[in-house]
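ok new one. same drill as before - structure tokens go in, u give me an amino acid for every spot. 293 of them this time. try not to just spam alanines like last time pls lmao
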């Protein structure tokens, strides 16, 4: 069975009129307007998504501290991110994936699209472990280790979630058939082979046209189910903090991902509920004679 994921949570929040230009991005609304996060999650569920990814991607203890929140408040907001996604569910079969974004995301300067931060695997694991512990304890169905730019950070994330008792997926942001850090995808996906906690590997926040080839490599290198949720294909200008270009997210490409072997599909930045509805229609076409909608 193919699982439909949600799209860009921040994209939907911006469409609802929110300014997410500060360093906390969508995580700011965990404190400022949690009801809007519920509404955004629910919009994707109503579009056909079976998984909601929490508003914790860019959340970190350091980032919350810079915003004037102490550690206790930061822990509570991480917990809230999971609670809000659960609250948004429209049926009990829908799942909540707690987002664990890369170290570069917390810098809010586009570093996740470069990787190689100059930190060791041990240092990165030490950064990720405390928030991974909090998110896992909040009771999500999955951990989403996502937008990983290089193999070092992938290894660190897998160390950070080890023993937490929550299944996880690992997804890289890529450029062609390499990670953003320049490593071959065969090497990148192989880090999850034999890791029973990892239930899927794949790619996200990349050009939709790069997905099909990556899915094939992921399946062969990891021996695991494959997840794919690219962005729209537009380009992120970290300095101006805006997207440029035109969307290339299209149902025809989704068919290519499925044909390549993807079993979890959705979208990332700049992919809204309408796009997910179109994707869901590819995954499960309406029966002949069914009324539209």
């Amino acid at each position: 069975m193919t699982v439909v994921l949600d799209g860009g949570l921040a994209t939907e929040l911006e469409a609802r009129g929110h300014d997410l230009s500060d360093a906390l991005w969508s995580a700011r609304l965990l404190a400022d307007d949690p009801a809007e996060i519920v509404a955004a999650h629910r919009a994707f569920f109503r579009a056909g998504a079976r998984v909601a990814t929490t508003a914790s991607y860019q959340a970190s203890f350091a980032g919350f501290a810079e915003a004037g929140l102490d550690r206790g408040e930061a822990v509570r907001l991480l917990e809230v991110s999971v609670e809000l996604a659960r609250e948004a569910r429209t049926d009990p079969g829908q799942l909540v994936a707690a987002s664990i974004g890369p170290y570069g995301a917390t810098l809010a300067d586009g570093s996740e699209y470069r990787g190689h931060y100059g930190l060791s695997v041990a240092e990165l694991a030490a950064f990720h472990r405390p928030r991974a512990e909090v998110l896992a304890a909040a009771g999500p169905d999955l951990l989403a280790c996502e937008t990983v730019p290089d193999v070092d950070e992938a290894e660190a994330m897998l160390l950070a979630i080890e023993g937490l008792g929550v299944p996880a997926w690992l997804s890289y942001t890529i450029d062609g058939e390499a990670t953003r850090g320049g490593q071959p995808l065969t090497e990148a996906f192989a880090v999850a082979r034999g890791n029973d906690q990892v239930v899927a590997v794949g790619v996200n926040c990349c050009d939709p046209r790069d997905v099909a080839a990556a899915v094939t490599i992921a399946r062969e290198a990891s021996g695991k189910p494959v997840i794919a949720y690219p962005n729209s294909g537009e380009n992120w200008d970290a300095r101006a903090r805006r997207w440029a270009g035109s969307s290339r997210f299209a149902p025809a490409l989704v068919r290519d991902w499925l044909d390549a072997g993807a079993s979890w599909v959705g979208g990332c930045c700049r992919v809204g509920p309408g796009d997910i509805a179109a994707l869901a229609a590819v995954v499960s076409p309406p029966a002949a004679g069914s009324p539209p909608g």
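The first helix runs from residue 9 to 15. and btw The first strand starts at residue 3 and ends at 4.
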